[in-house]
UniProtKB/TrEMBL annotation:
<dbReference type="GO" id="GO:0016491">
    <property type="term" value="F:oxidoreductase activity"/>
</dbReference>
<dbReference type="InterPro" id="IPR002328">
    <property type="entry name" value="ADH_Zn_CS"/>
</dbReference>
<feature type="domain" description="Enoyl reductase (ER)">
    <location>
        <begin position="13"/>
        <end position="344"/>
    </location>
</feature>
<dbReference type="InterPro" id="IPR020843">
    <property type="entry name" value="ER"/>
</dbReference>
<dbReference type="Pfam" id="PF08240">
    <property type="entry name" value="ADH_N"/>
</dbReference>
<dbReference type="InterPro" id="IPR013149">
    <property type="entry name" value="ADH-like_C"/>
</dbReference>
<keyword id="KW-0560">Oxidoreductase</keyword>
<comment type="similarity">
    <text>Belongs to the zinc-containing alcohol dehydrogenase family.</text>
</comment>
<dbReference type="InterPro" id="IPR011032">
    <property type="entry name" value="GroES-like_sf"/>
</dbReference>
<dbReference type="InterPro" id="IPR013154">
    <property type="entry name" value="ADH-like_N"/>
</dbReference>
<dbReference type="InterPro" id="IPR047109">
    <property type="entry name" value="CAD-like"/>
</dbReference>
<dbReference type="Pfam" id="PF00107">
    <property type="entry name" value="ADH_zinc_N"/>
</dbReference>
<keyword id="KW-0862">Zinc</keyword>
<dbReference type="InterPro" id="IPR036291">
    <property type="entry name" value="NAD(P)-bd_dom_sf"/>
</dbReference>
<keyword id="KW-0479">Metal-binding</keyword>
<protein>
    <recommendedName>
        <fullName>alcohol dehydrogenase (NADP(+))</fullName>
        <ecNumber>1.1.1.2</ecNumber>
    </recommendedName>
</protein>
Length: 350
């Protein structure tokens, strides 16, 4: 039997979210019900609200939110990994086929039949459109939930489920460790976690920024320095310096200056705006450079990221707001007015 829960939902094509009541499905055999405590506000939520992500379906009223923590309140009869009262964390995926090559290696985010996103996806059983974590309750398959490590603050840990694993996967793919030279382009919700993770992995980390106003923050987060991309002399001296650049910039921008900063066989991973058009191929040719991207993470990688963050005391730097201020958070995020991630306290949804 389905249940009702309060949520912040988009309607009538407006960018403003309004409080309403939505239905959650009744528990299937391998489902858990979660009372959401904290939900992060991702730039992808803005893209979805503005209709810039065609793979997201509004389903008659978009409810964003795909990085949240909470507590298990009920379990289906086949659930074995969780019990009522367990603290959990949920990210961008809530289902996949479980049988394709990607699912079998723990990369459910690349499921050949298409993963089911936490909001705006289509349920594999009944075809209904998923509604996200800007709500008080959520129901999902236990396989797509994670135990929240006791060492992590549940509010600051919520953004790890999207922003954190989005940074973690390319760092792991590149084999980053001691001696690696990593640059983070943009010091926002994604970038600040990229700095923390890369530094904890032992890399030499540099922040790339258009302005110097975050230089102190960059060093406090673990970077050795901030390089001004608007300073031609600094950019010229840094040519060929980095093994990996994580590009977290959400605005449209030219990739060519970043590619010139890569060493032989270096990699530029575009994570903040995957809709960007690519550079001239000559920029890749000069130095056997690689241009890649990444889409959040699978269950295996997310679990490893959570364990690493717990062991190294890594979580997001957040501004915690009651959920009733969700529209303020979205407006400020669009203006870049946050250091570094908004998290909504869902306890005010009665």
């Amino acid at each position: 039997m389905s249940t009702s829960t309060p949520a912040w939902q988009q309607s009538d094509g407006s960018a403003e979210l309004r409080q309403t009541v939505i239905d959650r499905r009744g528990l299937r055999t391998d489902d858990i019900a979660v009372q959401i405590a904290y939900c992060g506000v991702c730039h992808s939520d803005l893209h979805a609200i503005h209709g810039a992500t065609p793979h997201i379906t509004d389903g008659g009223g978009l409810v964003p939110g795909h990085e949240f923590t909470g507590t298990v309140t009920a379990t289906g009869p086949a659930v074995t990994r969780f019990a009522v009262g367990d603290p959990v964390a949920v990210g961008t995926l809530v289902d996949s086929c479980g049988e394709c090559a990607m699912c079998l290696i723990g990369q459910e985010n690349y499921c050949h039949l298409g993963p089911v996103s936490t909001y705006g996806g289509k349920d594999r059983v009944d075809g209904t459109v998923t509604k996200g974590g800007y709500s008080r309750e959520y129901v999902l398959r236990e396989r797509f939930a994670h135990h929240l490590p006791e060492a992590l603050d549940p509010a600051a840990a919520a953004p790890l489920m999207c922003a954190g694993v989005t940074m973690w996967e390319p760092l792991q793919a590149a084999g980053v460790g001691p001696g690696s030279r990593v640059a983070i382009a943009g010091l926002g919700g994604l970038g600040h976690l990229g700095v923390k993770l890369a530094a904890a992995l032992g890399a030499e980390v540099t922040v790339l920024s258009r302005t110097a106003d975050k230089a102190d923050d960059a060093r406090a987060l673990g970077a050795e320095e901030l390089l001004l991309t608007t300073d031609d002399d600094q950019m010229r001296r840094a040519r060929g310096r980095f093994d990996l650049i994580l590009d977290t910039i959400s605005a449209d921008h030219d990739l060519s200056p970043l590619l010139r900063l890569l060493d032989l066989d270096g990699t530029l991973s575009v994570l903040g705006n995957p809709l960007l058009t690519g550079p001239r191929l000559l920029e890749l040719t000069m130095g056997r450079k690689r241009l890649t991207s990444s889409g959040t993470g699978g269950m295996k990688g997310t679990s490893a990221m959570l364990a690493f963050c717990a062991a190294h005391g890594i979580a997001a730097d957040i501004e915690l707001l009651p959920s009733k201020r969700v529209n303020e958070a979205l407006a400020r995020l669009e203006d870049g007015d946050v250091r570094y991630r908004f998290v909504l306290d869902m306890s005010d949804l009665a």
